[in-house]
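FIELD: query
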Amino acid sequence: MVLFSAVLPPADVVATLVGVIGGLPELDGVRWSSPDNWHVTLGFYGEEDPAERAGWLRPRLAGMPAPRIWLEGAGTFTRVLYLGVYGEGITELGLAAGAGDEGRPYLPHLTLARTRERVPPELARRLSGYRSRMWTAAEAVLMRSQRTAEGVRYAVVERFPLSQQAR
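FIELD: result
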């Protein structure tokens, strides 16, 4: 079991994005992530005890302001297609949750697909103009990832409410 913390997009943002992706061409070697698994990673922890990680996160996230964020534009890592995450407070929330502790700068994003080879440039180009509505992320979650015969399944281990007070 692998642990990470995340912000989950609201159902209407997921539904709209499912419609957009449904209009994209089907290409060999592109494995789309299940909309049920879509999230914005804050911190990645690897294989750890969930209770210990939750205990570590609780004070770090207590009182953190709820970020106002949106998804916009597409980008790629070597074999990953993602949407950028922009807005007020997401980077600060990620850093509080341990983003960057592994030595890489934090880049808030939502992974849409993985590929066997390079991501076909057409996919990023077709999603480059995408922009979701803005939403307030009322909570961060600690999640676990488990491999099953049907693929990877994510489950919420604990929820951490974020402060709704004005910035």
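FIELD: remark
Strands lie at 2-7, 30-32, 40-46, 68-77, 80-88, 109-115, 135-136, 139-148, 151-161.
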